[in-house]
Structures are given as structure tokens and as C-alpha cells.
Amino acid sequence: MSEICPKCGLPKEICVCNVLDRETETKIKVYTKKAKFDKYVTVVEGINADEIDKTTKSLKRILACGGTNKDNVIELQGEHKLATKKALISIGYKESSVDLT
Questions:
Q1: Which one, of 40, 52, 53, lies nearest residue 80 by Cα?
Q2: Alpha carbon distance 56, 87 (integer Å)
Q3: Taking the domain 27-100, which CATH number applies?
Q4: If 0-12 CB within 10 Å is exposed, 13-18 middle and 19+ buried, where does residue 21 land?
Q5: Nearest CA to 78 among 55, 60, 94?
Q6: For the whole model, what pTM was predicted?
Q7: Average pLDDT value for the chain
């Protein structure tokens, strides 16, 4: 017997809650900042708290870099603004919701 989604009540195999959450997502802000020892960090804000762990893991794998998530903010090692936007779109986020600053 398959698991049931607590949000929609459908089996997990046909659940569309994650897709709907991504479509109704608020603006996702992607920017870089300088960290210790003149190293750059790419920061991603605005990802839903339920999806942040999975999104962090996917971004780290796609971009081949280290990173973490703290306080609903994803920090990726290195300067990856454009690549992060492309990766977020490939994961399933709308291009109009991803904002580079």
C-alpha cells in the first residue's frame, strides 16, 4: 500500500503538491556576497521551507559545489548566479520567479 500525501490526500506517486507549491512560489532571490578570505558565496532566498533540503541537495549536485542551508537561505560556495538560475529552472521553478540581483 502506498503512502498518502497529508496535504491533498492522494497517493504519493500522483501527488502534485510540490509542483503547485513551486508554481505559487514567491520571488526567489539569487545574489553573491563576499565571505571570509575573499571567497564568494552564492545566496538563494525565498525557497519554501518544505523544499529547501531537497533543493539544496539538487543545486549542490548540479553545480558541483559545496553548500548549506541556514534559516531558510541556501548558501553555495563560489560565484554561481547564472548557473543557479538555470539549475532552479531545470528543477522546476518558473523563470519569472527567479530574480538575480
A1: 40
A2: 11
A3: 3.30.780.10
A4: middle
A5: 60
A6: 0.75
A7: 88
